[in-house]
Design a protein that fits this description.
It comes from Gossypium hirsutum (Upland cotton). Pfam families: Myb_DNA-binding. With 315 residues, this protein is α+β, with helices and mostly antiparallel strands. The protein is built from 9 helices and 8 strands. A hairpin with a 2-residue loop joins strand 6 and strand 7. It is elongated. It starts with 18 loop residues before the first helix and ends in a 6-residue tail after the last helix. 30% of the residues are buried. The protein binds a DNA duplex (21 and 21 nucleotides) through helix 3 and helix 6.
DNA sequence: AAATTAGGCAACCGCCCATGA
DNA sequence: ATCATGGGCGGTTGCCTAATT
């Protein structure tokens, strides 16, 4: 037996919201709040709608400071970078773009951004770009796969043209054993809009970018770090000259967050930390963050989903 | 001008997870 | 520890409008 439906589907109205319904919902929430119970809200507000429908309407359309319309270049960049990092975690991405909803971003990705990137991808297939190597990069680890021609397909939740890591053939690697990702938006000049990224150890998560701000619900996800977490701890950052070199992504266990890059660190190789180092980095990251409406600025990435969706950053 | 096609977006569906009883 | 419930999320659908034939 399946679970009971959240509302009586026969008696609730579906389809587009009328202005009257909008104003009823808006007025009610502005007066009384949601009361932490969306299921009961429509009845109290005099609406013949499913609670989930009310929630969606409020979050995506009625709540204050919602931004509609064209996405800026900056927003575009944030979406692309985060998508490459965490996949289709629209709510997490939306949390980095004030005023934007996950639905908005999802639609934007599916209708425009994806096509834009696919166009770039097909360009790159016609003419393989030269491979820029940052001068400061000492040793490029072997076995990085050239992923420049792959693109993500949400319907199949996979990257077109991608194959399991275990079957990556050496002849698929590019001639410098570097790793490529399409990104025309970062502030650097590399031929054909390409930038090199260098995986660290087994997992790559790094982009020059602003630190994460908060989750959309304003919740805090902080958790004490244990010594066993530290054994899995890794740090990543962009090669010199790419993106924002000041930030550094920490990854420990299934958690990731931005932190200040340790002073004096300019390479792309893994850093070894002990427990105190990790705590110090995370503390400084939290206290330096400009988004103060939250207890901390952590966002966490489900490891299984990350592996599934960000495979092309692995080697 | 009418019909058809494509694109964009709001809304729905159903699954998963967190929480509280 | 288990179960029921609601919230949250990503994927998908379907309607509306604009563009094209």
């Amino acid at each position: 037996m399946g679970r009971a439906p959240c509302c009586d589907k026969a008696s609730v109205k579906k389809g587009p919201w009328s202005p009257e319904e909008d104003s009823k919902l808006k007025d009610y929430i502005e007066k009384y709040g949601t009361g932490g119970n969306w299921i009961a809200l429509p009845h109290k507000a005099g609406l013949k709608r499913c609670g989930k429908s009310c929630r969606l309407r409020w979050l995506n359309y009625l709540r204050p400071n919602i931004k509609h319309g064209e996405f800026s270049e900056e927003e575009d960049m944030v979406i692309r970078n985060l998508f490459a990092t965490i996949g289709s975690r629209w709510s997490v991405i939306a949390a980095q773009l004030p005023g934007r909803t996950d639905n908005d971003i999802k639609n934007y990705w599916n209708t425009k951004l994806k096509k834009k990137l696919m166009a770039l991808s097909s360009q790159s297939q016609r003419k393989p770009p030269p491979l820029p190597i940052p001068s400061s990069h000492q040793t490029i680890p072997p076995s990085y796969k050239d992923c420049s021609s792959y693109y993500y397909t949400p319907s199949t939740r996979s990257f077109e043209g991608f194959e399991p890591l275990s079957t990556v053939q050496s002849d698929l690697l590019n001639h410098n054993n570097t790793f490529l990702a399409t990104d025309s938006s970062l502030n650097h000049t590399t031929p054909d809009s390409f930038v090199s990224y260098y995986p660290v150890k087994e997992k790559l998560l790094m982009f020059g970018s602003e630190p994460s701000c908060s989750s959309s619900d304003g919740s805090s996800h902080g958790k004490e770090i244990k010594q066993e977490d530290v054994s899995n701890f890794q740090g990543f950052c962009a090669p010199n000259g790419y993106g924002d070199n000041h930030k550094f992504m920490l990854s420990y266990g299934n958690r990731n967050q931005w932190a200040e890059k340790p002073s004096g660190y300019h390479g792309e190789t893994p850093l070894d930390y002990d427990l105190e180092d990790v705590k110090r980095l995370i503390d400084s990251s939290s206290s330096n963050n400009s988004c103060n409406n939250n207890n901390n600025n952590h966002f966490f990435i489900d490891e299984s989903k990350r592996q599934e969706k960000v495979m092309y950053y692995y080697y």
